Amino acid sequence: EQIIKTAGLAPAMNIFSVNRESAVENLFKEPHIKNANIEFEGLYKIKIIVSERIPKYYVKAGLAFYEIAEDGIIISTEGMGEKDLPIITGIDTAGLVAGNSLLTNDNYFVAQKWLTQLGEKILKNISEINFSSVQNPYLILFNGEKVYPKSADDFKKRYDFLNALLDNLRKNNVEPFYLDMRGDHIVVRPKKF
Predict the structure, then answer these.
(1) Distance (Å, rounded) from C-alpha 10 to C-alpha 137?
(2) Residue 53 and residue 74: Cα distance in Å, rounded?
(3) Cα(121)–Cα(86) distance, integer angstroms
(4) Which of 12, 135, 157, 178 would bridge with 146, disulfide CB 3.0–4.6 Å?
């Protein structure tokens, strides 16, 4: 019903008065809609075909969490972080609204490359990726550990070793302040000396 309204159509509308291009254009004003097409079926039916954008990441903007689709479009600016999505911080969102694209934002472009490289398996264990400095991003794992990786590829290669190291630290009651993976060896800075 909402899609019909957004398209500017109404039940029992005269099919000959429908402007398909205008109706599709109206649908694309809704950020959730990725693709849309309107077809006539005979003389009495209109078929509306849409595909929806699915939130892939959050970009934190102040207290709000912007839902971002895989194509970089801001789906919503009203989120409160209630969905289980990776959070990207350090991205400038000033003046952006739902429907805008983040693909022209250099920091987001780098962040998206990282997220794609890391893959779903690793992203499930990452709470936040901060790109306030694209040359020196850091990750926050779901258990709260802060990690400074050398690169997305290096982090992915050493991810299993990192998890084994973290398990070992937990067994020895060592709570890391951060882990630095930018060198050949992982440096652990404990919270307490």
Answers:
(1) 50
(2) 10
(3) 12
(4) 178
Give 20-78 pLDDT, tens digit per residue: 899 999 999 999 999 999 988 877 788 899 999 999 999 998 888 999 999 999 999 98
DSSP three-state, residue 77:
strand
Q: Report the C-alpha gap between 186 and 129 in whole angstroms.
A: 19
CB atoms within 10 A of CB 83: 11
Q: Which long-range contacts (CB under 8 A, 24 or more apart) does 159-164 make?
A: 159/122, 161/186, 162/186
Cβ neighbour number for residue 59 with a 10 Å cutoff: 26
Length of the chain: 193
Tokens standing for residue 85: 């999505």
CA triple 131-140-102, angle to 5 deg: 30
> By the 8 A CB rule, do 71 and 62 touch?
no
Asked if residue 154 lies in contact with residue 147, where contact means CB atoms within 8 angstroms, the answer is: no
Query: What does pTM read for this prediction?
Result: 0.82
